[in-house]
Design goal:
The chain is α/β, with parallel strands linked by helices and 438 residues long. It is built from 16 helices and 17 strands.
């Protein structure tokens, strides 16, 4: 079997990638697009080969709970050892993204090694029916029965405590993932997935010289209260530079054990373009245009045809010789120039509650909560809906791009949104808030 590594550099803009990753060998896909403007639906597409609306995994229906087999499940059933590492809370067992992975490692942001790793406070709170000594003896009984992984929980707690004592934790996954790749004895039939968060706010690399002061992306987008654009972008660029340096070392390790290494972004970031900040809202090209590079012995050159996250899904299946449904095309074979959609389903419910609490009017919230869609077409064309109407760039190969968009939309087998939200602990909610997800 073929060993395959899939590395997602979260929130990495295409222009920032081009500036810092020119050293990365492989075949580049210069006109590649995400299916969404944020992590959850983009990864859901990456793991299923379908649009987020088709599998019902997006802002209005959170959690990777679709009936379709996940990519890792398909590979696992085919005999692959499946490993994952994530620095992003969204791509973790909390939201169901551990499906099909034999092991799932993570950073200090959240315990993702197992859903059964718990803190003492959380454990004791589940034993409210007992009092005093009974509560502690009940915990020990459950631990010896295997219900709680106490030793692992203590080890993680001590490690996190040591981080707190020595100083601020500013690396968002790259250094720990490098350590993982150096220590892991990879064998044959390996699939490795990783999500690294250095390019995600708050942009604080260990060697950064620019302090990226926190700002409210909602206020920056909805009001005239904008932060310093040049300052924030400089902090972001420093974070990307650090990521590129670390990834060069990571890639050197990966190429020793993997036949193919796929490096890509999941979405971009806004720095005041179109009046927007971070990746709060919309399907703007700065959010949707992503880098994709496939590195391997037979991979070189540049592809300018319209491609998508969906195609990465199909490519991995083909490289692994696994048969499973996918909207994508095999990127290392002859591909046709196909239209690709970018979807925005609206705001997360937690975001809406925060905006209501902050005093934003219902009518204003509704305008930002309205679904939008964009389409990438041959000849580097991108057209997209905005709050103010239709915008576009490039020259389309068709006479009516909006008609093409509607034709593509009609092919979607939309899964009805459940409006369900995954139940998460308060500590996780705070981490999501710190990252701008709430």
């Amino acid at each position: 079997m073929t060993n395959i590594a899939l590395i997602v550099l979260d929130t990495l803009r295409k222009d920032a990638f081009d500036a810092e990753f020119d050293w990365l060998p492989g075949k580049r896909f210069d006109n590649a697009w995400s299916t969404a403007k944020w992590t959850m639906p983009a990864h859901a597409s990456l793991f299923t080969g379908k649009y987020a609306s088709e599998i019902g995994v997006h802002a209005k229906s959170e959690g990777f709970d679709c009936p379709e087999l996940a990519l890792a499940e398909c590979l696992q059933q085919a005999g692959y050892t499946t490993r994952a590492f994530s620095a992003n809370l969204i791509v973790s067992p909390v939201f169901g993204f551990d499906r099909g992975f034999d092991t799932f490692e993570g950073t200090w942001r959240i315990n993702v090694n197992s859903k059964n790793l718990k803190g003492w406070k959380e454990i004791l709170e589940t034993n409210q029916s007992s009092t005093g000594l009974e509560r502690y003896t009940d915990v020990l009984r459950r631990a010896f029965a295997g219900q709680y992984r106490i030793r692992a929980s203590i080890k993680r707690g001590m490690r996190n405590r040591s981080h707190d004592l020595v100083g601020k934790r500013t690396d968002d996954g790259a250094a720990k993932f490098l350590e993982m790749t150096q220590k892991t004895e990879f064998g044959d039939n390996e699939f490795l997935f990783a999500n690294l968060m250095e390019a995600h706010a708050p942009y604080t690399p260990p060697n950064g010289t620019t302090e990226a002061s926190s700002y409210d992306e909602v206020a920056a987008t909805l009001t005239d209260n904008e932060p310093d654009k040049e300052h924030i972008r400089k902090a972001y660029d420093e974070a990307v530079h650090y990521l590129a340096d670390q990834y060069q070392r990571i890639f050197a390790e990966l190429k020793q054990d993997f036949d193919y290494v796929i490096t890509m972004g999941d979405h971009g970031e806004l720095f005041g373009e179109h009046g927007g900040w971070r990746h709060l809202h919309g399907v703007y090209p700065e959010l949707a245009h992503i880098p994709v590079v496939i590195s391997g012995s037979d991979c070189k050159g540049m592809c300018t045809k319209t491609t998508s996250i969906l195609d990465v899904h199909r490519t991995i299946l083909e490289l692994a010789d696994v048969d499973a449904p996918s909207r994508g095309q095999h990127l290392l074979s002859e591909i046709t120039d196909q239209p690709r959609l970018v979807e925005y389903e609206g705001l997360r419910s937690a975001r809406i509650r925060m905006m209501q609490k902050a005093g934003y009017s219902s009518s204003l919230i509704e305008t930002y909560d309205t679904p939008l869609i964009g389409i990438a077409l041959p000849r580097t064309y991108y057209g997209y809906e905005t709050r103010d109407g239709w915008e576009e760039s490039g020259s389309p190969a068709v006479s009516d791009p909006q008609k093409s968009l509607e034709e593509c939309r009609q092919t979607l087998d939309v899964r009805e949104a459940t409006n369900d939200t995954v139940e998460i602990a308060d500590a996780v909610k705070q981490q999501l808030k710190d990252l701008g997800y709430a």
